[in-house]
Amino acid sequence: MEVRDVARTMTRGADAIQFRTSAWIDGAFVAAQDGRTYTSENPATGAPLVEVALCGAADVDRAVAAARRSFETGVWSDLSPSERKRTLLRFADLIDANREELAITETLDSGKPIVDVRALDIPDTAATIRWHAEAIDKLYGQVAPTGPSAVAMIVREPAGVVGAVIPWNYPALMAAWKLGPALATGNSVVIKPAGQTALSLLRMAELAGEAGLPPGVLNVVPGPGEVVGAAIARHPDIDVVAFTGSTEIGRRFLHHSADSNLKRVVLELGGKSPQVVMADAPPLDQIAPKILDAIFWNMGENCSAGSRLIVHRSRQAELVERLVAAATEDWRVGDPMDDETRIGPLVTRGHLERVLGYIEAGRQDGARLVAGGRRVLEGTGGHYLAPTIFDDATNQMRIAREEIFGPVLTVIPFDTEAEAIAIANDTPYGLAASVYTENLRVAHRMARALRAGTVGVNAYSEGDLSTPFGGYKQSGFGGHDKSIHAHDQYTELKTIWIDMTGHES
Ligand code: NAD
After folding, report:
1. Among 19, 86, 104, 122, which one has the highest count of C-beta atoms within 10 angstroms of its own C-beta?
2. Looking at 128-260, which runs of residues are DSSP E strands?
3. How confident is the model at residue 11 (pLDDT cuts 50, 70, 90)?
4. Neighbours of 464 (CB within 10 A)
5. What was the pLDDT predicted at 452?
């Protein structure tokens, strides 16, 4: 696509939408207490999109007070699970009913290709809320095996006020991964979107209100991480804080908890995930598209991106040749509002520069650049990067060790199965991994040996809503989104012991 065509289509849709830009506290949109705002940009053009409330610690206090009040009055926490389910199902239905508006909002705010947002992000957001809502009235407590002298019930109760801090790469979906289980289990929530991408969540909060979620049960406080995020992390009246973001920032939440009220901290963090292609992998024309999906999907701005391709030397040359051809032919870079686009802009200029810095480091460390490696469509003002592949890298290079969070694939050859496992596991991260092999025994051996929260066999997969998603090592800290396991994070386990002795009639 020509630059001028990009410029023509990239703002399409914005005029039709009335963005929600204020904080959502106690069931209403409110300005930041001191009236300040910040400018959110459209990554496709680098131009200002909208002014958003720049909240501060005082706004977090307001939101936590509203959440605490709603929790203690029991307007939500004391409802029966089936009543909570009804409200959350209405919320999911409203997300579906407004999906086109939410999709355009998300694309203009984040630069994610509209085809992906329409097909995946927004439908999955609704599906996530629905899944947890549907689960909640089918869960039973336990009766302990005490004998007749006592009855002991083991029950789960909502933890109270949940704080959540989320990243910009899947703004609506990451919010739903927290809100689904936290609200379904009866908590009240204060959530902070990433500064770059607050708009879809603010609209979702309004839809939750429309669905009948009582005021104060969901509060959205946009603003800078080091102010609003830190205020949530330190707040003495928050019981659990759930964070998704970088390992570097996640670490701080543990300090803040220790320094404040020992709130429970659950962390979903970064990754440097391996895709291992064994000598006996399935035909390369079948697996090449999966390998590229795993690294280029969402511009590589994906915590579980398969950024290290660890390939048996006997398959390396043919596989890399296929990947390079497909990277240029199939992965079209362009305006994210265009249905043909598969790679939109990176989220900010600063992030683009950071990724370009890694590309330079790869060159200097001696990896062989075989695709991309440069900025494109500069005339648009957007933050576009050509999909990039480095071949013949080693696992010691920076491009193999650090999370790049961009469309950059690093190829590392190996000779033996033991070597493949050693390279794959030689990382501080452990979020996801995949192995490609047609040998069942190798598949089982590798799936057990790979130290990651999710291992895909002959696929790069995060599972579905029924499977937990969390990280080993520095990719997580007790955090599991999705599945029934996500509920444990937001509930307390209580024993009720009833003495049955005495008072015989
Ligand atoms: P980030 O850590 O910079 O920011 C995440 C959130 O924390 C944002 O809302 C930000 O405003 C806030 N924040 C920033 N500084 C803070 C501070 N000092 N105190 C409190 N909060 C603060 O991450 P990002 O750049 O938004 O997102 C990319 C990262 O998220 C990557 O590392 C990626 O791997 C990770 N991620 C992980 C998962 C997962 O499920 N494991 C999913 C998506 C993204």
Report:
1. 122
2. 142-143, 150-158, 161-165, 188-192, 218-220, 240-244
3. low
4. 12
5. 98
How far apart (Å, rounded) are the C-alpha atoms in residues 300 and 275? 14
Average pLDDT over residues 117-144: 98
pLDDT mean across residues, the chain: 96
Q: How many Å apart are CA 33 and CA 371, to the nearest integer?
A: 49
* Rounded (10°) CA dihedral 165, 454, 451, 296: -80
**Closest atom of ligand 1 to CA, residue 351:** 25
Assign 498 to helix, strand or coil.
strand
Asked if 327 contacts 389 with a C-beta cutoff of 8 angstroms, the reply is: yes
Residue nearest to atom 39 of ligand 1 (CA): 268
Ligand 1 atom closest to Cα of residue 233: 20
Q: Are 146 and 477 in contact (CB under 8 A)?
A: no
Residue at 106: amino acid letter: E
Scanning the structure block, which residue is given the tokens 């053009």?
45
**Which residues are bridge partners to 240 per DSSP?**
162, 264
Per-residue b/e over 3-42, b at no fewer than 16 CB within 10 Å? eeebbebbbebbeebebbbbbbbbbebbebbeeebbebbb
- Pocket, ligand 1, Cβ cutoff 6 A: 165-169, 174, 192, 194-195, 225-226, 229-230, 233, 244-246, 249, 252, 268-271, 303, 403, 405, 431, 471, 481
The torsion angle over the Cα atoms of residues 199, 23, 186 and 481, rounded to 10 degrees, is 40
Q: Are 311 and 480 in contact (CB under 8 A)?
A: no
Percentage of the chain surpassing pLDDT 90?
96
pLDDT tens for each residue of 15-46: 779 999 999 999 999 999 999 999 999 999 99
- Residues with active-site annotation: 268, 303
H or E element: which one contains 295?
helix 284-296
For the question of whether the overall pTM of this predicted structure is more than 0.85, the answer is yes
- Structure tokens of 185? 């289990």
Question: In terms of Cα–Cα distance, which of 271, 84, 269 is closest to 181?
Answer: 84
Give the pLDDT confidence score for residue 2 in this predicted structure: 38
Distance 246 CA to ligand 1 centre (A): 4
pLDDT digits (tens, 9 = 90+) for 204-220: 999 999 999 999 999 99
Q: Which residues, other chains included, contact 321 with Cβ-Cβ below 8 Å and sequence gap of 6+?
A: none
Say which residue, 1 or 58, is predicted with more confidence: 58
User: pLDDT confidence of 4, banded at 50, 70, 90?
Assistant: very low
Neighbours of 333 (CB within 10 A): 25
Looking at residue 505, what is its pLDDT?
63
Cα–Cα dist 5/367, whole Å: 35
Q: What DSSP string describes 94-140?
A: HHHHTHHHHHHHHHHHH---HHHIIIIIHHHHHHHHHHHHHHHTT--
Atom number in ligand 1 closest to CA 170: 43
